[in-house]
Every structure is written in structure tokens, then in C-alpha cells.
């Protein structure tokens, strides 16, 4: 059983599904995502359980370490300097100071190549590929040290934690798996601010996470004009959009680029220490320090926007955040926009399930199903007008109004 393909019977059906894309369909983003899902199912069907065990126990944990070493030593950056020139392990060892034996003879470089992170051009000759070039950029690379230093210990200790607490779902963001593993009573958001480089890496990771993904600001996702712009006030003081817990402002930057002619002000809010990290470049966006557990200072904006904020908090805290916004909304005019994952009842994408367990580990919170969103929002005095969804694995936009 362990040494034969996991599900050979489904292989021909999956190949047929892939052929449909080959024959008829334009490879737009939605089709690409569907094709990727089928291709992943095909790999799973062909792999034997034994191969899966070895991949998970050996290849992926060591790959994680190898990528972090490559980032730390600047290996990806060096390879990227002359992207068309194959480099040997000896060349790279001169640039990075890493013992050549570690790089060649089937060690770090070989594993990076075997797992598709770089391209093996010839015997002991390597070229960067799109992934390693991406990892040469700090904004993308930062997810690795951020997770390594601020999450991994808690992930490895999950089994120990749950055995100790009797397998109870964590609900207290200051007393969960993260606090157990890191021996602290601080919330992850408070704990992480003690380590400036980790805090910077997290904010970079957040801004890279959203980049290039289908966005509610695109015309084929959510009708910004008819739902928001058409009925918006046009005087200079009116606020169009408030991004609550908006990090370094990447979403509002994207919004102002995609919708340059919307009327009114765009306001970015986050904790004081996050706002302090912004180094110019926000254009007309106004940045404001605001703790979202306190009364929302902007009254009667056209829309208040929360992206990947509520999934960081258990229900009681979410109701506090939502109530602080509700108190400043103008009935019949203001909208609440929530950009979050909705866990489907069946067939949830790994991006959602993986993030759900990460949230459980770090902040005792979770991704929610549609029914859970409806219940939570009703408790805070909101009704859902419409849920705008693009495709599996992409966050939905939940359009809400005051009841
Ligand atoms: C997961 S990040 C999402 C950031 C951004 N909305 C995005 O989608 O990339 C959560 C954000 O909530 C902010 N945050 C946490 N606690 C906060 C508080 N009490 N008041 C305001 N912002 C807070 C964090 O600083 C962080 O920027």
C-alpha cells in the first residue's frame, strides 16, 4: 500500500481536466488557479504514501533551513547579479564565505535545485530561477526569518501543548500555543514589537503576501464604482476609505493607483509603532496612529475596511473592534468592507487551512466559515449585504451595513 501511487484510478480523469485548459481556454488568472488545483491533485495521486512521508520528514524541513541559510548569506542575491551566467559552488563560496563543501557535493545547492528553488544548469553549475530571484528581494525573503524566529518553535511544540491542555481549542490570545512555546504571557503582536527586525520582517511579509493576488479592487471582483463611488460625498473633507489595521499602507496604495479618481480622503490606521515605520511614499494617503480597540475617530466615512484583521482575534475581541467602528458609521451611508477568507464547507484550499493553523498557533484565532461570519457580524450590529468571491484560496470581500 505505502509504495504504490496514492490514487492511480483518478490520474486519467485529472489529465482530461488539464487538457480542457490546454485546448480551449485562455490562461487568465482564474483558469491558472483552477489548473494549478488540478495539477496538485495529479501530483498527489501519482506520489506514493512512502514518497510523501519522506518528502515531509526530510525534504521540506531541510529545504526550509537551506532557504534561510541562502537568504542569510546573500546567496540568492549573488546569483541574481549575473542571472544568465551559471555559477559553480566554488564561485558562490567566494562570494558568500560559505564552506564550498557545504554548497557543492550534493549539499545546499543540490537540495535547492532538487526542490525547484534554483535551476541546475549542468554538473555543479547553477542559475537563478523566478523563485530564487523573488527570494533575493527582502520583502519576499523576510517571510522565512519571520516564521523561523517568531513561529516555528510554537509549531513544533503544538503536539506537546495540546497534550498538556487536553486538546482544547485555544481561545485566549495571551495564553495559547505561542505563549507556551516562547515562555511569555504577551500577545504575539506585543511580543514581536520587542524585536525590531522581526517586526519589520512581519510587516514586509504582510505586504508581500497580498501583492499580485486577485484583489477586490479589480473590476472583475467588486464593483467599486457602483457600490462605493457613485453615492459618495464629494466635498474635500469627506473621507472615502479608512483602512483600519492597514499595516504599512500597501492596500490603500493599490487602491489609489487602481481608482485614482474616487472622491474624498484615504486614511490609513494602525498601531503607533507600525505607523512610525512608514518612510514616506504614501502620496495623498493620510497615516494615523489608532488603536482599533478604542472609538473610531473618523466619523461617517463612506467605507471602513478591515483586511486580515478579524482573523487575528477570537470572537469577543472581534466584537469589540467592530463595535468601535459601528459607533462612528453613518446609517444608510457608511459601509463596512471585510477582506477575509471564507472557509468553504468542503474542499478548503491549503492557503486557508495553513493560515488557519498558523493563526491558532500564534494568536489563538481562526479563519471562519460563512455562517460564523454572519453570526459574528450580527452580534456586532451588522448585516451582510453581499459576499464577493473570486476563486478558491483568494480572500472574499464581505460588504456590510449597520442593521
Ligand atoms: C495581519 S496584519 C494585516 C495588515 C493589513 N491589513 C494587511 O492586510 O496586510 C494585522 C494588522 O493589525 C494591526 N494591529 C494589531 N493590533 C492593533 C491595534 N490594537 N490597533 C490597530 N492595529 C492593530 C497590526 O499592526 C497589523 O498591521
TrEMBL record:
Keywords: Methyltransferase, S-adenosyl-L-methionine, Transferase. Residues 240-383 form the O-methyltransferase C-terminal domain. InterPro entries: COMT-like, COMT_C, SAM-dependent_MTases_sf, WH-like_DNA-bd_sf, WH_DNA-bd_sf. Pfam families: Methyltransf_2 (PF00891). GO terms for molecular function: O-methyltransferase activity. GO terms for biological process: methylation. It comes from the Eukaryota. This is Hydroxyindole O-methyltransferase. It comes from Talaromyces proteolyticus.
Amino acid at each position: 500500500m505505502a509504495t504504490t501511487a496514492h490514487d492511480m484510478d483518478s490520474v486519467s480523469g485529472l489529465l482530461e481536466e488539464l487538457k480542457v485548459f490546454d485546448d480551449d481556454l485562455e490562461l487568465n488568472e482564474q483558469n491558472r488557479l483552477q489548473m494549478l488545483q488540478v495539477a496538485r491533485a495529479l501530483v498527489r495521486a501519482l506520489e506514493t504514501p512512502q514518497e510523501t512521508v519522506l518528502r515531509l520528514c526530510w525534504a521540506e524541513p531541510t529545504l526550509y533551513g537551506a532557504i534561510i541559510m541562502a537568504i542569510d548569506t546573500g546567496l540568492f542575491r549573488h546569483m541574481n547579479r549575473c542571472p544568465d551566467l551559471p555559477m559553480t559552488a566554488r564561485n558562490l563560496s567566494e562570494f558568500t564565505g560559505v564552506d564550498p563543501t557545504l554548497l557543492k557535493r550534493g549539499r545546499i545547492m543540490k537540495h535547492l535545485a532538487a526542490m525547484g528553488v534554483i535551476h541546475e544548469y549542468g554538473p555543479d553549475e547553477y542559475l537563478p530561477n523566478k523563485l530564487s530571484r523573488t527570494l533575493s528581494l527582502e520583502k519576499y525573503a523576510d517571510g522565512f526569518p519571520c516564521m523561523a524566529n517568531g513561529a516555528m518553535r510554537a509549531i513544533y511544540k503544538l503536539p506537546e501543548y495540546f497534550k498538556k491542555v487536553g486538546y482544547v481549542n485555544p481561545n485566549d490570545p495571551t495564553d495559547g500555543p505561542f505563549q507556551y512555546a516562547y515562555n511569555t504571557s504577551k500577545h504575539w503582536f506585543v511580543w514581536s514589537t520587542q524585536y525590531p527586525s522581526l517586526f519589520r520582517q512581519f510587516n514586509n511579509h504582510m505586504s508581500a503576501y497580498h501583492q499580485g493576488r486577485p484583489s477586490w479592487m479589480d473590476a472583475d471582483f467588486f464593483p467599486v464604482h457602483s457600490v462605493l463611488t457613485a453615492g459618495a460625498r464629494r466635498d474635500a473633507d469627506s473621507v472615502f476609505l479608512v483602512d483600519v489595521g492597514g499595516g504599512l499602507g500597501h492596500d490603500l496604495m493599490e487602491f489609489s493607483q487602481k481608482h485614482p479618481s474616487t472622491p474624498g480622503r484615504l486614511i490609513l490606521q494602525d498601531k503607533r509603532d507600525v505607523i512610525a515605520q512608514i518612510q514616506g511614499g504614501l502620496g495623498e494617503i493620510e497615516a494615523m496612529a489608532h488603536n482599533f480597540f478604542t472609538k473610531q475617530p473618523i466619523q461617517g466615512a463612506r467605507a471602513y475596511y478591515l483586511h486580515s484583521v478579524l482573523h487575528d482575534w477570537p470572537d469577543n475581541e472581534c466584537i469589540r473592534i467592530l463595535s468601535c467602528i459601528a459607533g462612528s458609521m453613518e446609517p444608510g451611508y457608511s459601509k463596512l468592507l471585510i477582506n477575509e477568507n471564507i472557509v468553504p464547507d468542503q474542499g478548503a484550499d491549503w492557503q486557508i487551512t495553513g493560515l488557519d493553523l498558523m493563526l491558532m498557533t500564534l494568536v489563538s484565532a481562526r479563519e471562519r466559515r460563512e455562517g460564523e461570519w454572519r453570526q459574528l457580524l450580527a452580534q456586532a450590529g451588522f448585516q451582510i449585504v453581499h459576499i464577493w468571491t473570486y476563486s478558491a484560496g483568494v480572500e472574499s470581500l464581505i460588504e456590510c451595513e449597520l442593521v
